[in-house]
User: Fold this.
Amino acid sequence: MSAVQQRTEQRPLAGFTVGVTAARRADELGALLQRRGATVVYAPALRIVPLADDGELLAATKGIIDQVPDVVVATTAIGFRGWIEAADGWGLGEPLVARLRGVELLARGPKVKGAVRAAGLTEGWSPSSDSMAEVLDRLLEEGVDGRRIAVQLHGEPLPGFVESLTAGGAEVVPVPVYRWRPPEDLGPVDRLLDSAVSRGLDALTFTSAPAAASLLSRAEERGLLPELLTALSHDVVPACVGPVTAVPLQALGVDTVQPQRFRLGPLVQLLCQELPSRARALPVAGHQVEIRGHAVLVDGELRPVPPAGMSLLRALSRRPGWVVARADLLRALPGAGRDEHAVETAMARLRTALGAPKLIQTVVKRGYRLALDPTADAKYADV
Assistant:
């Protein structure tokens, strides 16, 4: 294996652009993507509004201390920690922890279990995954009729969870530790949306359902929702950390990709497989050419290409080996107008960027063609 091929395998996302909508742990996710070669566009689709000084959380905390519930469900690590910290600030930390020691404490997943134990408590039960459905099944199997169940909310609706408990006869006490709100600066989100609908992104990552819902809502406000849904359904990979996160997208008919383990690392690993598998590889003029989002691999070496050049290259690659007329290439150039000279200028820059001018042949008075190898599989010539 050559040094160039080794670098490509170590950076499988080289040439791809990935959008990050996360508010929490965005830097961690971005670093994982960049380490694998991706260009990352950050645009937090929401912000967390702590309720440490909010009367609603204070009232819920006092209510639990005064009237101890039968069950407490902790749904997120950051939310549970925030609740304990807020109670400490009000001088209610010790009484709250003392009450929680005497109840059945359910922790949604390993990270939440860690936060519970860090508070000096022990969970009664925790699923191996982060599935709220497993928690609900556990409660309903035990029977909830007549039981008082406190649920630490985490800024988003829990589809069917509270309703199912109530229908089963439980008294549900909501504990709203923090809420999600749209970002104060919508500029980054708007730029991300523009990039997605113009296919300037290859993938868009979501790590929470509120972030997905917030981005969709902003797209609707701007009249871009149909275009965004089309992009996510065909060209931009919507990658969600898990099934709960995917709900707002799937409700609008968008199929998402999700890792088997609902963590940031597996999410990035999934993209490292998904995006290169969608890139088109062609044998051209004795070279192996792989067309990626904003760059091209020529014999395994990454060659960044200007946006206009990528537009031309994609147009040529749709019919490799066939002549594409200048007029058709002009239509593929964004904002080029009617001057076919723009095609010549962009083509010259494309050839320079590729570092192998013979990849693209000029066919006098007709247009241009990718110089597909004569020995290439016939499927390329029949496209």
The chain has three domains: 3-46+183-278, 49-180, 280-381. Confidence is low (pLDDT under 50) at residues 1-7. Residues 280-381 form a domain with the Arc Repressor Mutant, subunit A fold (CATH 1.10.10.10). The chain has 17 helices and 17 strands.
